[in-house]
Structure formats: C-alpha cells, structure tokens
TrEMBL record:
SUPFAM superfamilies: 6-phosphogluconate dehydrogenase C-terminal domain-like, NAD(P)-binding Rossmann-fold domains, UDP-glucose/GDP-mannose dehydrogenase C-terminal domain. It is an enzyme of class 1 (oxidoreductase). NAD(+) binds at D52, K57, T107, T143, E177, K291, R358. The keyword Cell inner membrane does not apply. Substrate binds at F174, L175, R176, E177, K232, F277, L278, G279, A280, G281, G285, K351. GO terms for molecular function: NAD binding; UDP-glucose 6-dehydrogenase activity. Pathway: Nucleotide-sugar biosynthesis; UDP-alpha-D-glucuronate biosynthesis; UDP-alpha-D-glucuronate from UDP-alpha-D-glucose: step 1/1. Belongs to the UDP-glucose/GDP-mannose dehydrogenase family. One of its GO terms (biological process) is UDP-glucuronate biosynthetic process. The active site is at C288 (nucleophile). Its EC number is 1.1.1.22. It catalyses: UDP-alpha-D-glucose + 2 NAD(+) + H2O = UDP-alpha-D-glucuronate + 2 NADH + 3 H(+). This is UDP-glucose 6-dehydrogenase.
Amino acid sequence: MRRGATSAPRPAVATGYSRPVALRISVVGTGYLGAVHAACMADLGHTVVAIDVDPAKVEALAAGRAPIFEPGLDELLERALATGRLTFTSDYAAAAGADVHFICVGTPQRRGENAADTSYVFAAAESLAPHLGASTLVVGKSTVPVGTAARVLERLRRGAPAGDGVRLAWNPEFLREGFAIEDTVAPDRFVYGVDGDTADADVALLDQVYAAPLATGTPRLVTDFATAELVKVSANAFLATKISFINAMAEVCEAAGADVVALAEAIGHDDRIGHKFLGAGLGFGGGCLPKDIRAFMARAGELGADQALTFLREVDAINLRRRSRMVDLARAECGGTLIGKKVAVLGAAFKPNSDDIRDSPALDVARAAHLAGATVTVHDPKALPVARRVHPDMSYADTIEAACEGADVVLHLTEWKDYRDIDPAALKAVVSSPHIIDGRNALDPARWRGAGWTYRALGRPHPVVA
Ligand SMILES: NC(=O)c1ccc[n+]([C@@H]2O[C@H](COP(=O)([O-])OP(=O)(O)OC[C@H]3O[C@@H](n4cnc5c(N)ncnc54)[C@H](O)[C@@H]3O)[C@@H](O)[C@H]2O)c1
Ligand SMILES: O=c1ccn([C@@H]2O[C@H](COP(=O)(O)OP(=O)(O)O[C@H]3O[C@H](CO)[C@@H](O)[C@H](O)[C@H]3O)[C@@H](O)[C@H]2O)c(=O)[nH]1
C-alpha cells in the first residue's frame, strides 16, 4: 500500500498522485543526472528550467545538443525543447516561482581523500535560497553522505527570504548511464526522504511530479532524510560488492585453472543469488560506484561506525587488482615486457553506451601499459572526444583497424557491441601478432580462436575450454 497524501502544500496544487498535474520545476546541475532529469520532467508535461554554472553546457543544451552521449537524449531534448516547456540558463533567478527545485549537482571524491566533496551541493543551495518563495519544496537528488540533507535544509532556511517556510526532501536517483531515460521515467522504485514537520505535503507534491510513473505501479517508499541518503549509498555498495565478489572468484579460478564465467552462470541459477551483476572482468568504474563506496566508508568512520564497512576496503582493493592483473596479462602476452610493444586498447568509456570516462578501468589500464613502456592506441565508439580532451597525453584512433594496426596485443576493455561485431579474421590481417585479451568476458572465444587468434580472458583458463 502506498502512503496517501493528506494535505496539499498550497491550494493551486492538487493532491492525488495518479492525477497528472503540470508543475513548474527547476533543475540545478545539468550533468549526466540533471540533463536527463530535466528533459524527462519536461517530457512528463512539467515546465522545466534547468540551471548550470557551466555556460558551454547551457549553450549546448539550449541548442538541443546533449553535451554527453546518452542513448535517446538528443531526441528527447529536441522533443522537449520544441514544446517550449524546457529551457536552460545560468541565471538562478529563473528558478523563482517554481513549485519544486531539484538539486542534481556533482558530489565527486575529494582530491586525496575518500570523502565526498559536498561543496557543490551547498553552493547550489546557497545560490537557490534567495529565489525561494514561501512554502517551496527543494528536492535533493545528488548522492550525499548521510547527514547532508539536514545541513542543506539549515542552509536553505538561513538564506531564503521565506526562512522556515522552505522545505526539503531527499529523493536519491538510481539511474544507470546508458539506460538513464528509462530509469528516470520507469525506475525500480522511488524513495522520498522527508522531514517530519512537512512530510505529508512534501510526499503529495513529489507524487504529482512523478504522477505518470507512479500510475504504472512503481513502488514508492517514504523515509526520513538519513534513511533515504543511506538507501542510495548502500544500494551502490551492494552492487560493488557483488561485482567484487565474482572478481574475487575470478582470482581463485585463475589460480585453480577454473572458469569464472561458467561459475557465475551456475551460481546465478540460484534465485537467491541471480545472474545480474555477476559479470567478471575488469571491474567497476565510473562516476558513481568507486567514489560512493569510498565516501560511504569515510562517512561511517566519522560516525564511529567504520568497522561496519571495512569489507568495502576489500571490495575496492579486489576491484583495483583486476586492472593490474590485466596489465600483467598483457605483459605476459608480449613475451614478458611491454617496453617497445604496440598495445591496442578497445574501449575508453567506463561502460558501453556511455561516453563517461570518469574512473574508467579501460583508460586506467591503457595508462598503466603506456607507463610500462608500450605504445598504446585507444579506440572507443563514443568516448574519444572526451578522452582526447581529458587525457591528451594518450594516443587515439578513430577506427578499430587504425587502433590495431601493427599491434602486439589487443585489449578488449569496454564491451561495446561494435567489438562483438568485429570480424576476427579481417582484424588479424592488420595486427602484428594475433593476441587478444578479453577484459570483459564478452567476446566469443571460439570465433577468435577459430580465426587463428590467441584468446585470453580474466578469470578463465588458458586456453578457454568452453
Ligand atoms: N551519473 C549518474 O549515473 C548518476 C546516477 C545517480 C546519481 N548520481 C549522482 O548525481 C550527482 C550528479 O552526478 P552527475 O554524474 O550528473 O555529475 P556531473 O559532473 O555530470 O554533473 C554535475 C553538474 O553540476 C553542475 N554544477 C556544479 N556546481 C553547480 C552549481 N553550484 N550550480 C549549478 N550547477 C552546478 C556542473 O557544472 C555539472 O554540469 C552526483 O551526486 C552523483 O553521484 C549520478
Ligand atoms: O556485472 C557487472 C556489472 C557492472 N560492471 C561494471 O560496473 C560499473 C558500473 O556499472 P553500472 O552500475 O551499470 O553503471 P552506473 O551507470 O555507474 O550505475 C551505478 O551507479 C549509479 C550512480 O550512483 C546508480 O544510480 C546505478 O543504480 C548504479 O548501477 C561499470 O564499470 C561496469 O562495467 C561489472 O564489472 N560487472
């Protein structure tokens, strides 16, 4: 049973989450989360102003060009902009008059520390506060250390003319890059962390924001601030743990001559375990799982509960060991040294269907091989522009063939479909030695070996028996 709304925040806004009501919404921060959230909210029928401090991002989005690659986002932007319900600006004053303000700014890892940098969230709250009217609802979506929401509410009330009339809810986001649009409009669940005093009104308003997905039966859970903040980081900690669990099994498989792919398939048939997130390979990267488990450990330490999360240190360590194992395998395939060897790296993004290179395992391996003396050339179907900009010291190629030209070893590090579609026989003609290492266990060993390649993979016997 869903908890029903009992009181409306103001008469202009109707109650009842199944009745679509068009609201005025502001979205602060237009990165991987905010740009998608803003466009989806406009597509649901709301009028949305999206605000970012980065003028280049604002200009691109206003012109209908997504500054990131996310499947379907360009089309969604075009559609939403054409309705006139979606605008982008750098001017916080444009947020005035909105019914709901979403905070979607970044919370990256602090340089040299495990903790999250929440300064962008507080800066956004401070910039928003002067424009908040009486009884306005601000909704935090960024992933934050537990205890942040209460501090954000204090900050908002201190800076807003309406003072204590300002309300806050924490509504963490669970979208996956590559599936961001469907995860926004049809998530597995909504979580609303609300404040005791205004809880019913806040739940009612959020129900109006999400009326369409709620009408399809999406579960909605109402909690306090702290629980909502913890739901988000514990979900990511669980996912990271599942991946590191199977990668720990991969280490044992390598030592025992067993096959982690067959092992994952077999244990996943147990419904209590399931097959999802048992993909052994190079491990997790991106702008979320790595920094979120570290920030979670740091926050637990501040709260005196550090012992509870010491296992996450091992989750992180197992994950990082996969990257060095990949470099070791590459070295072994090149006859014991990478000095003077040519290494082709297939993949720069941290996962397929995204151009996000934040904490990308693929680029980490590429850089390590480069530092070990190899000439490394990286290919990626979508992430090359950002990779070239952020890591100009590396070499890149626009085609798979050009990246593999004269290679002593090919490393498959991000499982794009383009790489599964490679004709191994054709590629063999361009490399120097036909050696491939599959860092994602996503290629068909029989196809590659059948075309005369030496195929190796993380966590699998060599040669693969399957
Ligand atoms: N990327 C994801 O898949 C995802 C999914 C769920 C949750 N999250 C969380 O959402 C938050 C945002 O992540 P992201 O990946 O979109 O980050 P991002 O770096 O892509 O985007 C953050 C945006 O905020 C803008 N910004 C920073 N300070 C600002 C300010 N004071 N006012 C206005 N704009 C400001 C930046 O210019 C940038 O465009 C993080 O807390 C992240 O952990 C991300
Ligand atoms: O079986 C698997 C599954 C994933 N990965 C890797 O794990 C990382 C994360 O993948 P995924 O979770 O699909 O991507 P994200 O877009 O980072 O999404 C995660 O992080 C988001 C930000 O917090 C959350 O909202 C999502 O729910 C959560 O899945 C990537 O490097 C994947 O290659 C594996 O190695 N093996």
